[in-house]
Amino acid sequence: MNFAVTIDVRGVEGIADPEGRTIERALGSLGFSGASTVRVGKVITFDLEADDRSSAESTVREMCDRLLANPVIERYEITVSTSS
Amino acid sequence: MNFAVTIDVRGVEGIADPEGRTIERALGSLGFSGASTVRVGKVITFDLEADDRSSAESTVREMCDRLLANPVIERYEITVSTSS
Predict the structure, then answer these.
(1) Interatomic CA distance for residues A74 and A13, integer angstroms
(2) How many angstroms separate the CA atoms of B78 and B76, rounded?
C-alpha cells in the first residue's frame, strides 16, 4: 500500500531559534508590529510504500529517530494517511 | 486580541527540492526503501496581537507576500486561531 507521510519537526521550547529571531526582527523592520515568539520548523512530506499503516508508522518513527529529527533539540509529529 | 498563527510554506510542484532529494538518498543509504517524492517545507509559528481575526489574517498574508514566502517558487497556507 502507498501512504502519504507528513512529519512536522519543531524545536523544543526553550531552545534558541535564530531563524525565528531573525524573522521577528525583519518583520519589525518592515513595519509589522505585534508578532512575537516566532519559531520556524520543518515539514517533511513523502510517499511511502508499506504493507500496512502500523508498519508505515513504525518505519517513519525509526526514520525520524535515525535521520530526520534531532531528539535533543527537536520534537516531531507524524501523520500517515492512505494516498488516494 | 492575541492570535496563534501557523504558516505552512511549501515548494511549488515541479520546482527542484535539493534538501528533499538529499533526504531521499540518505534514507536509502540507511536501508529505508520505499520512500519517494520527499519534499521539505517550512512551518512558521508566532503570536500576533491584532484587533480581530480578519485583520490578523490580512496582516499575515501581507507578511507572507513581503517576507516569509517566495511566491515564484513557494506556496503558503495560513492558519489563524485565537490563543487560549
Answers:
(1) 9
(2) 7
Q: What's the pLDDT band for B84 if we cut at 50, 70, 90?
A: low
B15-61 pLDDT, tens digit per residue, is 999 999 999 999 999 999 999 999 999 999 999 999 999 999 999 99
- Apex CA B71: angle with CA B8 and CA A40, to 5°? 30
Contacts of A50 in chain B (CB under 8 A): 34
**Is any Cβ of chain B less than 8 angstroms from the Cβ of A73?**
no
What CATH code is assigned to B2-73? Answer: 3.30.1280.10
Interface test with A, best of B21, B22, B32 (most A CBs within 10 A): B32
Can you give the pLDDT at residue B1?
92
**Which chain B residues touch A44 with a CB distance below 8 Å?**
20, 23, 38-41
Question: Average pLDDT, stretch B53-77?
Answer: 96
Phi-psi region for residue B34, left (φ > 0), alpha (ψ -120 to 50) or beta? left
Rounded Cα distance, B15 and B5, in Å = 26
* CATH architecture entry for A2-82: 2-Layer Sandwich (3.30)
ipTM of the modeled complex: 0.89
A46–B37 C-beta distance less than 8 A:
yes
